[in-house]
Design brief:
It is found in: Cytoplasm. With 318 residues, this protein is α/β, with parallel strands linked by helices. It folds into 2 domains: 139 residues, Rossmann fold (3-Layer(aba) Sandwich), CATH 3.40.50.720; 167 residues, Lactate dehydrogenase/glycoside hydrolase, family 4, C-terminal (L-2-Hydroxyisocaproate Dehydrogenase, Chain A, domain 2), CATH 3.90.110.10. 40% of the residues lie in helices and 18% in strands. The protein is globular and about 55 Å long. The two termini are 34 Å apart. The relative contact order is 0.15.
Length: 318
């Protein structure tokens, strides 16, 4: 993919979609950023507002329309359209309305940009990703979800605060559902190459015992609900996370990210469900999953998370 022509399209010009566009422009992710939204006045206003700042970012242009044709020749399409999460509402409770919207809205986008890599961000992202694969017939590599990329970033931030080290030196993943049943992979986590379970507070941080790890997990799971309660939506961090996923595809980075993709074969008794595991992301999209070691508790938690998602898939006849 030549940087001079690469194009990122974003479906939905709400708080999340515009935050992705803003992050992508600042990071110089794509030369063209296209916004699609059924609200013509809203998308036109967002395009104008973003365009007024183009002097201050790497060279790019911003376009937008209610017409899916604006996505033509996209290299990456990020789908954010969906029902807005209300305070106290779980991600899975959003499923029914958003599945119907995805069924209607996504196929015309795929028709306009059949060769793009698709990143689903709309919640509940794992179920929506599974539904989108059914509606479009695209392979798992070409269409996948943002998964727990944001959750893993939240985990790393909290660990960096607790242990008083730079967040860039924390390597830890959240796996499973992007939601209440997600699990931290403590047994494979490291700080500066030191296994997390062997970490001692030598830098002035606190002891990372089982109680501390439980509290951090609860904070990761509950943080979105607190943000939604306070301001109505989470948008900045998911904007950065989504732009980073697009960048990994556009730059063919072979970067390991915990995106949500379809498990087609048997993975420790798990199959036919979309959930997050550390995955190589490159120009082809979601590639191989890392054969990451799992403790007995982690494997049990991952299976339980998968069952939660399969129950929801079955509920909606997917």
């Amino acid at each position: 993919m030549e940087s001079a022509g690469r194009k990122l399209s974003i479906i939905g010009a709400g708080a999340v979609g515009t935050s992705i566009a803003y992050a992508a422009l600042i990071r110089g992710v794509a030369r063209t950023v296209a916004l699609v939204d059924v609200n013509a006045d809203k998308v036109a206003a967002e395009v104008l507002d973003l365009s007024h700042g183009l002097e201050f970012v790497p060279r790019a242009k911003v376009i937008g329309s209610p017409d899916p044709a604006v996505c033509a020749d996209s290299d990456v399409v990020i789908f954010t359209a969906g029902a807005k999460q209300k305070p106290g509402q779980t991600r899975l409770e959003l499923a029914e309305a958003t599945i119907d919207l995805t069924r209607r809205a996504l196929p015309p986008i795929v028709e306009a940009a059949p060769n793009a890599r698709y990143v689903m961000v709309t919640n509940p992202v794992d179920v929506i990703t599974y539904a989108a694969l059914k509606f479009t017939g695209l392979p798992r590599s070409q269409l996948f979800g943002s998964g727990t990329v944001l959750d893993s970033s939240r985990l790393r931030f909290l660990l960096s605060e607790h242990c008083r080290v730079a967040v860039q030196n924390v390597h830890a993943y959240i796996a499973g559902e992007h939601g209440d049943s997600e699990i931290p992979l403590w047994s494979s986590a490291t700080i500066g190459g030191v296994p997390l379970l062997d970490w001692e507070p030598t830098t002035g941080g606190e002891l990372l015992d089982a109680a501390a790890r439980d509290a951090i997990r609860a904070e990761v799971v509950g943080s979105a609900y607190r943000i939604i309660q306070g301001k109505g939506a989470t948008n900045y961090a998911i904007g950065l996370a989504s732009a980073r996923i697009a960048e990994a595809v556009l730059d063919d980075e072979h970067r390991v990210l915990p995106v949500s993709s379809l498990i087609e074969d048997d993975f420790h008794g798990i199959s036919d469900v979309c959930l997050s595991l550390p995955t190589v992301v490159d120009a082809d999209g979601a590639g191989a999953r890392l054969p990451i070691a799992l403790s007995t508790d982690e494997l049990s938690g991952l299976r339980s998370s998968a069952q939660t998602l399969k129950d929801m898939q079955n509920k909606f006849g997917l």
